[in-house]
Amino acid sequence: MKVPDLRSPYEKTGELCYFGRLLDKIRLKSRGELPGDYLNNLGKGFDARCLDFLGVDYERVVAHTLEGGTDDGILDWCMKHGRRPSESEIFMWNEFMRKFGWNDQATPTLQRRLAEGGFTNRPDIQTIFDYIDLDEERA
Fold this sequence. Notes:
Layout: E1 12-13, E2 16-17, H1 19-30, H2 36-39, H3 45-54, H4 58-66, H5 71-81, H6 87-99, H7 107-116, H8 128-135
Antiparallel strand pairs: 1-2
């Protein structure tokens, strides 16, 4: 399902993938524009992994995001109130997230979602990020 103003998980804020998407979901929910299918996982799954990586609490990030500011500014705030990962750690984070679902513990989930969506004929969709982009009608 296409969701206006919701970025691809591949898009980066600063050097960090996924973070901008997390902020988009927070903002969309606050405006009542986030589809119901997304509500149960807010602050969980990839959201939780991202904020654990940064060492900050979801509710604090929600509150700070809704105060306004740029994505880069919110990321900087997270790194000041949590932890600032090294360049190597960010590289590993991005690669882990980018490849999640490819020959790992998430592969069965990816295969199930592809089947549920009628996408079993899509061998090019090999990761959860790929599936998210497919499901949200991104090229």
